[in-house]
Amino acid sequence: MTGGKDDRAQSTTIGFVLLVAITIAGAGAVVGLGGQALEDSRSTSTVDRVENAMTQFDSRTSMVALGDSSSQRVEFGDGGDGTYGVEEDAGWIRVTHHNYSDGDDHEVYNESLGAVRYTEGDTTVAYQGGGVWRSDGGGSMMVSPPEVTYRDATLTLPVVRTVGSGGAGGAPTAYVRKEGATESIYPNSSRSYPDPDGRPYLNPVRNGTVVLTVHSEYYEAWGRYFDTRTEGNVTIYHGNRTAHVELETGGDVGDFRLPSRSNAVEARGIADGHSVDDFSITLESDNGNFNNMYFAFHGESDGKEYEMMIHTPSGTNPKCSGGEVQQTSPIVYDILYRGDGHDDVHAWTNDSVETDSGPIRFQCDGNDVELAVDFTGGTNLTYGDHTVSNDDLERDWDDQINDSVHFGHEQDGEPMDVEDGNETTSRHLVRHYMANLAPDIDLVVYYSTGGNGNGLRLNNDMSYGSLRYETAQGPQYITYLHVTENRVRVEFR
């Protein structure tokens, strides 16, 4: 056959060329991939160094912010292609006392946090609020914790605010110094709530809830930190990049102004057992008339219900003369309880409580008549029925009342069995039933005048009460709040 040797020679040449081409292409790919891997490794190594430097910066800055040093300097390593900068408007922190008084909210503190930030592409590492945070564009993580601590129902918040401007690349040195004196926000007797009494910022924190909110690029990491440190209600809002934690106030509610009808006295963190020491109210009428009044507190928790009702019958119209009450009349006092189902209903009554003295009494405040009711006093009630009709009670109590019940706590003479006709004191019953509904109870106010409505018109601003109890301990409660503002100025050179 002709041409055989030439064809084989040509094939050999083409094969050699292809082999060289493949080798070169493969070598190029290896070099390219290796170069990218080297670049990624270099970038990772740089960010790791920045994290370590930022953690050191965190430690040094805390010394300045919290008073151990007047100034510090921190040398940052080579930041590669990234840059460092001070952003004093980055993020903010807010402390709000929700429902501090009869449904009102009050902003205790709201200021910017600022940050010292390293940025390289989508990656940032930042010092903010006394902690170090990192984001790679797809979420955030905590590198070291912020200056926020929660222990034994005490929230301690030394807010570290970073001020300054400017930035630097390469391997700069940061200079940190104190900016002004530490400012005490809470407690602080010179600051007060905007209520009529001008209640000062003092511990223990009472009523409602305390909410700590942080707006930050690293909000998700802040939220996870709150979640690991407390059992409060932690919520993350992606839309406005905020995280907040809500803590229930614990400790004594103490003295309170009477809420308006359908609003509540909030009892939070009641300890186990008969822990209520004092529950009393003083009612004052706008027109001095207590004729045909129905007044109740109703509580509900986990399917259990509780109501205590005071009824002043028609014709009750006491007057003050010479500082003494005239024309006092007996009143009705009912206590009702429903357990986990409609087959567990208790009723207690006293249909002739004398009101000239004792734990339930009319009294004079100048020329004005008041009705003072000590629910934890020694008024006797009898088991088996209630005097006030269902139409005038705040809740429906049409269910069959138990013939007998068992009280199983370890205080006030319990354990004990109760049967129709047995007597005990209002103090025993209030402590027992509130223990059944604890630890959190909204005691909702209800009142009406019954009949034609020409009786009582309560003056809520002049009516008041007191509720005190032992406090439960738990990671969802707050009893003591400590907030300070600490400003530091940061400069790069």
TrEMBL record:
Is the keyword Transmembrane helix in the record? Answer: yes
Query: InterPro entries from the entry?
Result: DUF7289 (IPR055713), DUF7308 (IPR055732)
Which residue windows are coiled coil? none
- Tell me the protein's name: DUF7308 domain-containing protein
Where does this protein come from, organism-wise? Halorarum salinum
Q: Name one Pfam family in it.
A: DUF7308
Which UniProt keyword terms apply here?
Answer: Membrane, Transmembrane, Transmembrane helix
- Specify the DUF7308 domain's residue ranges: 266-470
Membrane spanning stretches: 12-35
| Key word Transmembrane helix present | yes
Which top-rank group of organisms is this from?
Archaea
